[in-house]
């Protein structure tokens, strides 16, 4: 869910860690060089050991910082993050990309691959809304359940929506979900820094509107998915193309709320592009995506969301 006041924070750490990481890459390559004499090899191994030690220390420090600075993370969440760091998926959490009311997104790295780790804050999630979205989804069969179960279903929903979306449009690959944590591919530039949001950069708006129009049509008709929280906040820009993120509120077209959410999505999109000087109309976009006229009754219902 989008907290429109979110600020991207703390990212300055990223490059420091990134550089260290590259140094290690170099030493790894050198290790394979058969022409090295023993002394050099020993030195390399020592460096490698030191590097490993540094990583372990950093992991510890990071988790300590999380514990003290971000007291909203309960111990179970810390354990889940710990298990991700100790497992085969990520080596290091690099820093916070974004800290919102309901979730915190970290960047992480393993070898030369970057990841985004989205952690839902168990204590501040809006369970009532979550429940409403999950309940009508035929993919989930939750009866009355605990808040934790609702959050798990929520993360599972985002994971499955991302998988589905990724097949048809530009979006991060979902890799793993565990408790209230989702691991996905990081959308990033050449230096490993996260890509900016559409809201924060200048693009060729006419071109972007056309791409987004096609993508929404594909999402609706082929992926049979409605994003549910689409706006310039949840579209990143990479290689001069849109990349769609934050599918947590996404529903399949069979969901009773899908029409209302689609109408809200396309109104957000056309409002944004109108502000950027592009001639567009939500009714026309609705017709283009669904092949139907927008009925006043559906529009009326959508005003409740
Ligand atoms: N896969 C990703 N790659 C790069 N940045 C990401 C990724 N996922 C999230 N972000 C960044 O984190 C922010 C918050 O993530 P989002 O999924 O939109 O959560 P929220 O529900 O808090 O809005 C995004 O606006 C974006 O800047
Ligand atoms: Mg968002």
Automatic annotation (TrEMBL):
Positions with biased composition (Low complexity): 1-22
Uppermost EC category: transferase
InterPro entries: Kinase-like_dom_sf, RIO-type_Ser/Thr_kinase, RIO_dom, RIO_kinase, RIO_kinase_CS, Tyr_kinase_AS
EC number: 2.7.11.1
Catalytic reaction(s) noted: L-threonyl-[protein] + ATP = O-phospho-L-threonyl-[protein] + ADP + H(+); L-seryl-[protein] + ATP = O-phospho-L-seryl-[protein] + ADP + H(+)
Keyword flag ATP-binding: yes
Coiled coil: none
Residue segments, region Disordered: 1-44
A GO term for molecular function: protein serine kinase activity
Biased composition range(s): Basic and acidic residues: 23-44
Domain RIO kinase: residue ranges: 62-291
UniProt-listed Pfam families: RIO1
Keywords on record: ATP-binding, Kinase, Magnesium, Metal-binding, Nucleotide-binding, Serine/threonine-protein kinase, Transferase
Superkingdom: Archaea
Xref: CDD domains: RIO1_like
Family membership noted in the UniProt record: Belongs to the protein kinase superfamily. RIO-type Ser/Thr kinase family.
PANTHER family noted in UniProt: SERINE/THREONINE-PROTEIN KINASE RIO1
Annotated protein name in UniProt: non-specific serine/threonine protein kinase
Species of origin: Methanothermococcus okinawensis (strain DSM 14208 / JCM 11175 / IH1)
């Amino acid at each position: 869910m989008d907290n429109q006041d979110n600020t991207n924070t703390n990212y300055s750490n990223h490059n420091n860690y990134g550089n260290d990481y590259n140094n290690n890459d170099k030493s790894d390559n050198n290790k394979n060089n058969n022409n090295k004499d023993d002394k050099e090899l020993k030195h390399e191994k020592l460096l490698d050991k030191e590097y490993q030690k540094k990583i372990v220390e950093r992991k510890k420090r990071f988790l300590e910082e999380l514990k003290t600075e971000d007291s909203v993370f309960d111990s179970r969440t810390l354990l889940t993050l710990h298990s991700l760091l100790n497992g085969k998926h990520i080596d290091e959490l690099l820093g916070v990309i974004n800290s919102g009311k309901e979730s915190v997104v970290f960047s992480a790295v393993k070898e030369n691959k970057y990841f985004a780790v989205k952690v839902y804050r168990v204590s501040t999630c809006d369970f009532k809304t979550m429940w409403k979205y999950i309940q009508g989804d035929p993919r989930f069969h939750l009866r009355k359940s605990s808040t934790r179960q609702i959050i798990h279903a929520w993360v599972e929903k985002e994971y499955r929506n991302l998988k589905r979306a990724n097949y048809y449009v530009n979006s991060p690959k979902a890799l793993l979900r565990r408790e209230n944590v989702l691991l996905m591919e990081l959308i990033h530039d050449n230096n490993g820094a996260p890509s900016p949001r559409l809201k924060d950069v200048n693009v060729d708006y006419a071109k972007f509107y056309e791409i987004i129009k096609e993508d929404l049509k594909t999402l609706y008709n082929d992926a049979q998915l409605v994003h549910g929280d689409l706006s310039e906040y949840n579209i990143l820009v990479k290689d001069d193309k849109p990349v769609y993120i934050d599918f947590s509120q996404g529903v399949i077209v069979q969901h009773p709320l899908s029409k209302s959410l689609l109408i809200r999505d396309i109104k957000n999109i056309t409002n944004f592009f109108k502000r950027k000087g592009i001639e567009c109309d939500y009714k026309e976009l609705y017709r283009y995506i669904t092949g139907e006229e927008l009925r006043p009754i559906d529009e009326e219902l959508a005003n409740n969301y």
